[in-house]
Design a protein that fits this description.
Elements lengths: L1 H9 L6 H9 L3 E5 L4 E3 L9 E4 L2 E6 L5 E7 L17 E4 L3 E5 L2 H10 L1 H27 L2 H18 L7 E3 L4 H8 L3 H13 L3 E4 L2 E4 L2 H8 L14 H4 L5
Antiparallel strand pairs: 1-7, 2-6, 3-7, 4-5, 4-6, 8-10, 9-10
Helix pairs in contact: 1-2, 5-7, 5-8, 6-7
Length: 246
């Protein structure tokens, strides 16, 4: 697990050797979750929970029993960064069968005090997550229903394909129509019509937990999908951060 954690954090700027050594020495706890189980509840503090297998969603439950999904987590994601210094203000729930691995809160605090390089990487991870959530918010506010679904499908497929977890135009997406409705701010009836439209136009099909992409270019164009918005934030190079002639 610790090597997977290092690989995940390396995306946000190279870790120093001393950080890698201490991460390799950390203890780990493995947990497994069935679909629908809460992985990290509201108020949970960060323990560098790493999603090792499966898909999960970040969501807020409303007083009337409704919910808003505002993010999908794929393997390799750190899913509790919102609880780094304060408790999570949302919950993370398993979409399918999931496995997570994490360290202890005490070890995490010790690592952060000892390694500013690790803290900087985690800060960039939080900024990346915030960027992705802004993109999600823009979609809810300004995209049509079909464009919202297309963008969601593109994101789910692209993120798994980067990890080599997707097949030839196919990937796991164990979401039911109620999940998609809560992610897109639509009714289940509306989602049914949208999914049927995407299928009839040959763009994408969701069946039995498998997302099949029929026309990637068309789907990305409809959804206004831009993979640059999903790429990890990294430390600026000297050539970017320094003024000309400095």
């Amino acid at each position: 697990m610790n090597r997977l954690l290092i690989a995940s954090l390396d995306r946000f700027g190279p870790l120093r050797d001393s950080v890698r050594d201490d991460l390799l020495a950390c203890s780990q706890e493995v947990e497994r979750f069935e679909p629908g189980q809460v992985i990290a509840p509201v108020g949970a503090r960060s323990r560098l929970r790493l999603l090792a297998r499966g898909l999960a969603v970040k969501q807020l439950e409303l007083a009337d029993g409704g919910r808003q999904i505002f993010g999908v987590a794929t393997p390799g994601d750190l899913i509790d960064l919102g609880g780094l210094y304060v408790g999570l203000d949302h919950e993370v729930r398993a979409l399918g069968v999931c496995e997570t691995r994490m360290t202890t809160a005490h070890e995490l605090r010790t690592l952060l005090r000892a390694h500013p390089n690790l803290l900087a990487a985690l800060c960039r991870a939080v900024l990346t997550e915030a960027q992705q959530q802004r993109n999600w918010m823009v979609g809810l506010g300004r995209r049509t229903a079909a464009a919202r679904a297309a963008n969601l499908f593109c994101e789910v497929y692209w993120r798994q394909s980067v990890l080599r977890l997707a097949g030839e135009r196919k990937c796991d997406f164990p979401a039911v129509q109620a999940d998609i409705a809560d992610a897109l701010g639509l009714s289940v009836v509306h989602v049914h019509r949208v999914l049927r439209g995407l299928r009839d136009e040959g763009l994408a099909t969701l069946r039995n937990g498998v997302l099949s992409i029929g026309d990637w270019e068309g789907l990305a164009r409809l959804g206004g999908f831009d993979p640059e918005r999903l790429k990890p934030q990294q430390e600026p190079s000297d050539s970017v951060s320094r003024p000309s002639g400095a």
